[in-house]
Amino acid sequence: MTDIQVQHAPASTAAGRVRKAPENFLNPAGIRTAQAEGIRGRRDFIRNAFAAAMAGGAAVHAAAQAPDVGDGDPAILKLPKHSTGLGRPVASPPYGQPSQYEGNVQRRQSPGLTQTNQASVSFAPIQSLFGIVTPNGLHFERHHQGWWDIDPQQHRFMVNGLVKTPKVFTMDDLMRLPAVSRFHFIECGANTGMNWGNVAVPTVQYTHGMLSCCEYTGVPLITLLEMAGADLKKGKFILAEGADGSSMTRTIPIELVTSGEVLVAYGQNGEMIRPENGYPLRLVVPGVQGVSWVKYLRRVELGDMPFATKDEAVHYVDLMPDGQHRQYTSIQECKSVISTPSGGQVLLSRGFYNITGLAWSGRGKIKRVDVSVDGGRNWRTARLENPILSKCLTRFNIDWVWDGKPTIVQSRAMDDTGYVQPTYKQLRQVRGSRSIYHNNAVQSWLVQENGEVKNVQVA
Ligand SMILES: Nc1nc2c(c(=O)[nH]1)N[C@H]1C(S)=C(S)[C@@H](COP(=O)(O)O)O[C@H]1N2
Ligand SMILES: [Mo]
After folding, report:
1. pLDDT digits over 100-130, tens only?
2. Cα separation of 392 and 381, whole Å?
3. 3 state DSSP class of 193
4. What's the rounded Cα separation, in Å, for the pair 190 and 192?
5. Cα(219)–Cα(433) distance, rounded to whole angstroms?
6. Are the beta carbons of 337 and 358 closer than 8 angstroms?
7. So what's the pLDDT on residue 27?
8. Is the pLDDT of residue 204 over 60?
9. How much is the pLDDT for 68?
10. If you average pLDDT over residues 15-24, what whole number do you get?
11. Which of 46, 76, 247, 358 has the fewest CB atoms inside 10 Å of its own CB, making it the most exposed?
């Protein structure tokens, strides 16, 4: 690792590759963005240095051409203010914020969608996140009628329908009950929807950012149903209803509830759920599309058949090639995406890169992720990082040495049921091309000769 010093020179300028990117092209290590212009982060430095160390002939040659700085940048002797003065006081602010240098990492509305204030969606910047957990302030949002910050003292939750005694709980009531904490992903059924129509939205934030993953804390819904004396012989479905005005009422099969998986949750990543995500109470329905994760949860009704509410007939149904709609396709099938390198990012120079991404399945655990760096001709199996949890994001990584030539990178996940993520061709053979929802096809990113990465579809 002593070679790291060889490449202290800013690789971008050395290679003549200083490239401005639009503000929404974010900033993983080693990849130039508008924000990083002039601020060479430590991560970038290490990454570029590693590139030189790993990439063999070509990169070593590039390093040799770089300004001669390997033996010590005199700036190391100049003590900056933060080494000589007093830092800021504790607890200011009382609720911590990210570094001012990370201001680029934001959830955003898609350039390809109508931008509205209330009935809208913001996408999580998954190209800038590490591991599997989505920080609460960056969780994607999907509001059908805007969000509310509901007073938990006023909030009530009712269980009714096929129960002996309908029950109404306060938040205090709920928080006295036995709780569990579990990590799960939530994905909107419309995630990656634009790609169906071959609309190449530019970044992974917009192709796959209606996706987040949190540790949820709450009470299994089955506990509350049992407290109300639910008739689980007759009861086959539940209806979940939110307290906002959006009528996002959804039918959920009882098997998901009796398994103990469905939670009435108040916690998200160690603190109370954020208002945007349903404070003070939301339904967590592991593996099922986001719309069933009803926010501001106010009522669960037990019934003996699907409730067929207005929304269930129009939204999140799949238009099939024969003209019929497929309804209640609620499980999010196995899927993966490479988050670096991904659309809008710019590779600074040939050499070593850590390819990283996320894989998930609504049916269980991720078993394997294969990665191709040559447009699907050859595949190598990526490393899955722990923890590998059921119905949860799994992080994968794989080494890559880019030779500087244009190429296509792709990932393909398999879950523990043996299901393999389909190509667009395979998906369209079954689903046709007029769908919007439930697109889990293999994503292709074209790395161009100039290092710019683009969203493409391969046949
Ligand atoms: N009450 C209520 N629940 C809701 C919605 C809503 O608009 N109102 N949107 C649904 C949809 S379509 C999705 S994808 C998820 C989004 O959850 P998030 O905003 O926490 O990301 O919440 C679901 N639950
Ligand atoms: Mo959604």
Report:
1. 999 999 999 987 666 667 668 999 999 999 9
2. 20
3. helix
4. 6
5. 40
6. yes
7. 39
8. yes
9. 44
10. 31
11. 76
Are 210 and 121 contacting, i.e. CB atoms less than 8 angstroms apart?
yes
**Protein residue whose Cα sits closest to atom 11 of ligand 1:** 291
pLDDT digits (tens, 9 = 90+) for 288-341: 999 999 999 999 999 999 999 888 888 888 889 888 888 877 899 999 999 999
- Cβ–Cβ under 8 Å, residues 183 and 261: no
Q: Which residues line ligand 1 (CB under 6 A)?
A: 139-144, 188, 242, 244, 246, 248, 276-277, 290-291, 293-296
Burial of residue 349 (CB within 10 Å: 0-12, 13-18, 19+) is buried
Distance 290 CA to ligand 2 centre (A): 5
Cβ neighbour number for residue 311 with a 10 Å cutoff: 15
Q: Show the tokens assigned to 19.
A: 């490239």
Neighbours of 179 (CB within 10 A): 17
Is 295 exposed, middle or buried (CB count within 10 Å of its CB: 0-12, 13-18, 19+)?
Answer: buried
In the DSSP assignment, the letter for residue 381 is E
What's the mean pLDDT in 419-445?
94
How many angstroms separate the alpha carbon of residue 312 from the centre of ligand 1? 14
Ligand nearest to the CA of 119: 1
Give start and end residues of each alpha helix (H) in 95-190. Answer: 171-175
pLDDT reported for residue 71: 66
Tell whether omega for the bond before 321 is within 30 degrees of 0, i.e. cis.
no
| Cβ neighbours, 10 Å, residue 313 | 10
Centre of ligand 1 from the C-alpha of residue 282, in Å = 9
For residue 142, report the distance from its CA to the centre of ligand 1, in Å: 5
Using CA positions, which residue lies closest to atom 24 of ligand 1? Answer: 294
Please report, for residues 222, 263, 284, 297, the alpha-carbon distance to residue 178 in angstroms, rounded to integers and kept in the order given: 12, 12, 16, 19
Strand order in the sheet with 453-456: 380-381, 366-372, 407-415, 444-447, 453-456
State residue 376 phi and psi, 5-degree precision.
Answer: 100, 5
Shortest-distance ligand to the CA of residue 277: 1
